[in-house]
Design a protein that fits this description.
Layout (H helix, E strand, L loop, with lengths): L10 H4 L18 H10 L6 H12 L6 E5 L2 H4 L12 H11 L26 E3 L7 H12 L4 E7 L2 H5 L6 H17 L1 H4 L2 E5 L7 H19 L5 H4 L2 E4 L1 H4 L3 H6 L9 H15 L13 H4 L2 H4 L14 H12 L5 E6 L1 H4 L10 H11 L7 E4 L9 H4 L3 H6 L5 E5 L2 H7 L7 H18 L4 E5 L11 H20 L3 E4 L1 H11 L4 H4 L9 H14 L15 H18 L4
Parallel strand pairs: 1-2, 1-3, 3-4, 4-5, 6-7, 6-8, 8-9, 9-10
InterPro entries: SGNH_hydro (IPR013830), SGNH_hydro_sf (IPR036514)
Keywords: Signal
Pfam family, one: Lipase_GDSL_2
């Protein structure tokens, strides 16, 4: 929503250790014995330069099918937002990186609005989390076509899971893993008319020496399989390796990157993401605009508490709730899209913590038991991204995903930036909302829209004219929901008003410092409200290990030590 200066410090890259990038230049289809021995000696530790170039070229193009699909088991799927203090998951952080920090910043001006050259936003280049509970490489390859169907996956990313590593002791497991990895590579590279790309991310090292020995074993199998494709220059150039095990076998990572259960902490997640990004774009330096600097973040990464106070939830229209519950029960797999501006995207002002999309996705998979549903964040962090502009492009973006349910939360930028607030009338909003519904139905005639009202910001910049415009917009939004049987109202404006009416002091737990955007704690309430609107109750989130005072103190001490080291204080 608002313009800002770039961060002075790059927190994301500051925490990463250097990656040894070994360029692999393919000049012929046949490898000499000397060349092959070099590949074996270096272990193919990094993505080769050809793959990085191909991916960057794909991201620049106007194609629809430049999507990333991440595959993995419980290590990826069971990312417990409360155990990790609501910090964003690995896949969500990578999605944010590609949108705002990648080489082309496809959701940043002027690229987002450069319609003359037909440059498209990442809104139509999705990052899909295709992981699921207990997913192994065997289940991935058996279900691969179903997982990628209609999603136009161009780059398939396999995050090697501990389940496959622990299974190596089983008779015949190494041969089975080798066979399945070959199938995964062939499946991935055959996508998009044999132009697909595959990235294999090896597992990180832990404090368990026996497990680490198995990591080394599975790494040797991975290297062997990848090397078996070396004689096919084109296919080999579309395979990449990211060896996080090499860069995590150190005391710093093992002390703060993983917890006592050898699962990733928020810092460990960032460390792995840094290695992945550095492998993909070894010459690129990003600025982490969506998070705070090291000075600001300090121990708050671990110590932040997600508020679990009573939420004041609206009562949804009973008829639509019943219809939608039937819709859910009759569909084994649904596609969800969260469409909006920076309020929906939420990445910058939550400082890398979870927002509405992440919380909803977590509850959907864990409490609604819908692990196969796909949820995509199409929120654009830009003060130029208005309902007026976005409604002109939905036809394109929806075509690339064809969602079953769209959560639409837009309009504040129209009021603040697109024109004088007096222009925002009921008719203005009604026209663009109806066009959005028409565009959605053109790609999925059975789709639903959940439309949210606009809470009035508490900033001093909110004039009476702006308040009037917000009121007009909310009237139009409510009428839009009433007049369309496939539209559900999510009255967030009333939720915020109710919370602050009961406890005015709670404002500091809702708004960020600008009193326009929201904190992660507010999105917990918003996600619960959305679930209630759709007609479901769910339990309170489980108590986190890190909420124990002694554990938190120890973690804080560790974080302070490493941050002091990063900042050169030691």
């Amino acid at each position: 929503m608002i313009k800002r200066n770039k961060m002075k410090k790059n927190w994301l890259l500051a925490l990463s250790s250097p990656l040894l990038v070994v360029p692999i230049v393919l000049t012929s289809c046949t490898k000499t014995e000397e060349e092959t021995s070099v590949y074996k000696k270096d272990g193919l530790y990094s993505l080769n330069n050809n793959l990085g170039t191909k991916i960057q070229s794909a991201m620049q193009s106007g194609e629809m099918n430049n999507n990333f699909g991440f595959f993995g088991g419980n290590d990826l799927f069971n990312y417990d937002i409360y155990q990790n203090n609501a910090y964003r998951s690995y896949v969500d952080l990578f999605s944010d990186y590609m949108r705002y920090n990648g080489p082309y910043k496809l959701d940043s001006s002027p690229y987002q609005f450069d319609t003359a050259s037909k440059r498209r936003t990442i809104g139509s280049r999705f990052v899909f989390d295709l992981s699921s509970k207990d997913q192994t490489l065997a289940t991935i390859v058996n279900d691969y076509n179903g997982l990628v169907k209609d999603n136009n996956i161009k780059t398939s990313v396999l995050v090697v899971d501990s389940a496959d590593i622990n299974n190596l002791s089983t008779e015949g497991a190494t041969t089975e893993f080798e066979t399945n990895l070959k199938r995964f590579i062939l499946n991935g590279t055959s996508q998009n008319k044999n132009k697909g790309m595959v990235i294999i991310q090896k597992h990180y090292k832990t404090n368990d020496s026996s497990f680490n020995n198995s990591v080394d074993l599975i790494n040797s199998i991975i290297d062997k399989v990848v090397l078996s494709f070396a004689d096919d220059a084109d296919l080999f150039s579309r395979i990449g390796l990211v060896d996080v095990s090499k860069n995590t076998d150190n005391a710093n990572f093992k002390s703060i990157g993983i917890n006592s259960s050898n699962l990733l902490t928020p810092y460990g997640t960032l460390e792995l993401l840094n290695i992945f990004v550095d492998s993909l774009y070894p010459k690129h330096t990003s600025i982490a605009e969506w998070t705070s600097s090291v000075d600001d973040i300090k121990a708050d990464v671990i110590n932040q508490t997600i508020t679990k106070e009573t939420s004041y939830l609206q009562t949804a229209d009973s008829t639509k709730v019943i219809n939608f519950k039937n819709y859910l029960s009759n569909n084994s797999k649904l596609k969800w899209a969260f469409v909006g501006d920076s309020l929906t995207n939420g990445s910058y002002f939550t400082r890398g913590y979870s927002g509405l999309y992440e919380y909803f996705k977590w509850y959907l998979k864990h409490d609604w038991n819908r692990p196969d549903d796909l949820v995509v964040n199409m929120g654009i962090h830009s003060n130029q991204y208005s309902l007026e502009y976005s409604s002109q492009n939905y036809g394109y973006n929806f075509l690339g995903y064809a969602p079953d349910v769209v959560h639409l939360w837009m309009g504040i930028n129209d009021i603040y930036y697109e024109s004088t607030a007096s222009k925002i009338t009921n008719t203005y909003f009604s026209n663009y909302l109806n066009k959005t519904l028409t565009d959605l139905e053109s790609v999925n005639k059975n789709a639903w829209i959940v439309v949210s009202t606009i809470p009035t910001p508490k900033s001093d910049t909110v004039t009476n004219e702006i308040k009037t415009a917000i009121g007009n917009a909310n009237v139009a939004i409510k009428n839009f929901a009433k007049s369309n049987s496939k539209v559900i109202l999510n009255d967030l404006a009333s939720v915020v008003d109710k919370v602050l009416e009961i406890d005015p002091n709670y404002q500091s737990n809702i708004y960020a410092s600008d009193l326009l955007h929201y904190q992660s704690t507010a999105y917990v309430t918003f996600a619960k409200n959305l679930l209630t609107v759709l007609g479901e109750n769910f339990p309170d989130p489980p108590k986190s290990e890190t909420e124990d005072e002694s554990t938190t103190t120890t973690l804080n001490s560790r974080i302070e030590t490493i941050l002091d080291s990063v900042q050169g204080k030691n």
